[in-house]
Amino acid sequence: MSGHSKWSTIKRKKGAADSKRSKMFSRISKEITIAVREGGDDPEVNPRLRVAIANGKGINMPKDNIARAINKADKDGSTLQESTFEGYLPNGIAVFIECLSDNNNRTVSNIRSIFTKRGGNLGTNGSLSFIFERKGVIQIPKGSLDPEEFQLEIIDAGVEDFQVEDDMFIITTAIEDFGAVQKRLDELGIVAENVELQRIPNETKILPLNDSLKILRIIDDFEEDEDVQNVFHTLEVTEEVMKSME
Fold first, then answer.
1. What residues contact residue 31 under an 8 Å CB cut-off, 6+ apart?
2. CATH (domain of 37)
3. CA triplet 115, 120, 125: central angle to 5 degrees?
4. I need a surface site. Which of 28, 193, 194, 209 has the fewest CB within 10 A?
5. Which domain holds residue 57?
6. pLDDT grade for 19, boundaries at 50, 70 and 90
7. 104 and 216 together in one domain
């Protein structure tokens, strides 16, 4: 879990770059659209929308962009479809990809092309269900919070793992406790920077530095596709790998 939480921090910092920001805005806009389609446009009674809006604010997404995504949901929401892809990259690294798209044929073609060009193998849906477990992951700016006191305040709500990485708390919960932990944070008046359901690998694999960087470049290829929302993988992102990316 430690390697996973460190990678979450790295991804957050990478996302601050202008080249990544537009992609992140697009990702949040799509999530808002789906949330409104499923539960209406009132975040007070729509938990998925509330989380999407909070995530938008966490990456400094302009209020106008958020309002526009909510207003466009009736028109755009009906065309967006969720899909997932599973497969293996070189050196036996498993990968799970979540997409939102208005053109499934395009999505399938693009994802298949990356697998093929990069020496991977696209599998069938469900083939990697035993490798990844869905959990809630919440990132909270450390600010003036005392780590020990804060952990004691929320541990009984269903926190499974509590990590402190640089200026960020990273909390992991079982999927059934995800809502309870969010509710407890609301009661404490604590605002998260990012809240999402992730697919956490049960085991990770360590590769030599060059091989690890090649895998991460493939992950980037997937993440840069306009239809891709999230990419989860079993590569262990070691300290050596992280230092080489700084």
1. 48, 52, 55, 100, 229
2. 1.10.10.200
3. 75
4. 209
5. 2-78
6. low
7. yes
- Amino acid of residue 103: N
Statement to judge: residues 74 and 10 lie in one domain: yes
Indicate the helix (H) or strand (E) that contains 73: helix 73-76
Q: Dig out the tokens for 48 from the structure.
A: 């998925």
Q: How many domains does the chain have?
A: 3
On the question of pLDDT at 8 being above 70, the answer is no
Verify that 239 and 121 share a domain, yes or no: yes
Angle at 220 between CA 201 and CA 198, to 5 degrees: 30
pLDDT tens readout for residues 31-41: 998 899 888 98
Question: Largest alpha-carbon pair distance within the chain?
Answer: 50
Based on the fold, state whether residues 68 and 106 are members of the same structural domain.
no
pLDDT over 50 (residue 2) = no
Q: Given this model, what pLDDT does residue 3 score?
A: 47
- Looking at the fold, whether 157 and 239 belong to one and the same domain comes out as no
CA distance 31 to 47: 12
The confidence score (pLDDT) of residue 202 equals 93
What is the pLDDT confidence band of residue 6, given thresholds at 50, 70 and 90?
A: low
Q: What are the residues whose beta carbons fall under 8 Å from the beta carbon of 223, sequence distance 6 or more?
A: 23, 231
Q: What is the b/e burial string over 191-222, where b = at least 16 CB atoms within 10 angstroms of the residue's CB?
A: ebbbbbbbbbbeebeebeeeebebbbebbebb
Q: Check whether residue 120 and residue 232 sit in a common domain.
A: yes
Which domain CATH number covers 95? 3.30.70.980
57 and 145 within one domain: no
Tell me the two tokens of residue 205.
């694999």
Residue 182 and residue 197: Cα distance in Å, rounded?
A: 12
